[in-house]
Amino acid sequence: MVAMQLEQVGQPLTCVKLVLPVPREHEILIQVRACGVCRTDLHIADGDLVPHHLPLTLGHEVVGTVVERGTSAQEFAINDRVGVPWLAGSCGHCRFCLAEHENLCNDIRFTGFDHDGGYAEYLVADARYCFHVPERYDDMHVAPLLCAGLIGYRAYAMAGDAERIGFYGFGAAAHIISQVARHRGQQVFAFTRPGDSRSQDFARSLGVTWAGNADARPPAELDAAIIFAPVGALVPQALTVTRKGGTVICAGIHMSDLPAFPYAILWGERSVRSVANLTREDGRAFFQIADHIPLKTMPIPFPLTRANDALNALRDGAFDGAAVLIP
Fold first, then answer.
1. Over the stretch 85-121, which tens digit does the pLDDT of each residue have?
2. How far is 317 from 130, CA to CA, in rounded Å?
3. What is the pLDDT of residue 57?
4. What would the DSSP string read from start to end of 214-254?
5. What is the mean pLDDT of the chain?
6. Distance of CA 77 to CAs 67, 69, 99, Å?
7. Residues 22/50/40/31 CA torsion (nearest 10 deg)
8. pTM of the predicted model over 0.85
């Protein structure tokens, strides 16, 4: 099989030919039909998140078809369509797993980080951590839901019943979750890099209440803000436009350091919290929503062998929506 592998941090991925992996007890062998390109992939490739081993096949927004099963993998049948997310496994017996917080497990494992991911023609995954995905979406349109949608949903759920919610960084996650928020009657405020009129226009095309620069004050105070951009300096900026009792949620796995800021902008029972990975329950809840709300994921297709072009385009902010690799 062909795979695009990271052999050295900071260097382009290499196109290699590998022997097909063999699924073990709870694993399934999946023929990849589409794999979304996530900013976390970029953080791994650039060394912001240090990979646990090299070479490594990135990719954790995978949609494919089951072609072989391990002896105990009963969750999917041969030829079933399956979605493979960032969460690849957990211990199942620690205090976090037993409390249904498997996303905090100290022995947690990730697709495209601890195990080879979907920048390939095939991959193996633990069937217990995979999902059935809604049939209303084709492969290319459903792939971004496996991380941008799932992590975005977990962050969004932390905002509770916020009437006015701000999204800092209007990329793959924000453009999906803004549609969920609007469907529920919430007002969405989109913040982009200063002067990024293209992304602001994109946000307006999805019906947001307001779109503007990240350093601007919106026309109304926010009840909650979600920071999707990996920029720590946005935390105090978001606090200044969030009402007393409101919440600022940091949705990224990696973020630059937070600068010092005055206590006055945190006071008033405002809170700052982070999002760590996801749980399988998050996936089940989100895909139930996605099955009822026709979400537009705006995929930008790239052939698998052009994975480096997709990563560079993401790094440069060259597109709106979500890049998707097609084997």
1. 999 999 999 999 999 999 999 999 999 999 999 999 9
2. 30
3. 98
4. TTSPPSS-EEEEEE-SS-TTHHHHHHHTEEEEEEEEE--S-
5. 96
6. 9, 8, 30
7. -10
8. yes
Instruction: Assess whether pLDDT exceeds 90 at residue 7.
Output: yes
Main-chain dihedrals φ then ψ at residue 261, nearest 5 degrees: -145, 155
Whether residue 68 contacts residue 20, with contact meaning beta carbons closer than 8 Å, is answered with no
Q: Quick one: 191 exposed, middle or buried, by C-beta within 10 A (0-12, 13-18, 19+)?
A: buried
Sign of the Cα pseudo-torsion (59, 62, 67, 72, in order): positive
d(C-alpha 162, C-alpha 246), whole Å = 8
pLDDT score, position 130: 97
Burial class (CB in 10 A: 0-12, 13-18, 19+), 189: buried
In sequence order, which residues have a C-beta less than 8 Å from that of residue 251 and are 6 or more positions away?
Answer: 151, 152, 154, 155, 173, 226, 227, 228, 275
- H helices of 109-249, in order, are 139-142, 148-158, 172-183, 197-205, 234-240
What is the C-alpha to C-alpha distance for residues 220 and 241, in angstroms, rounded to an integer?
Answer: 8
Contacts of 227 by beta carbon, 8 Å cutoff, 6+ apart: 168, 169, 234, 235, 238, 248, 249, 250, 251, 252, 255
Q: Is the Cβ–Cβ distance between 322 and 148 less than 8 Å?
A: yes
CB 324 within 8 A of CB 33: no
Q: Which of 271, 280, 276 is nearest to 248 (CA)?
A: 271
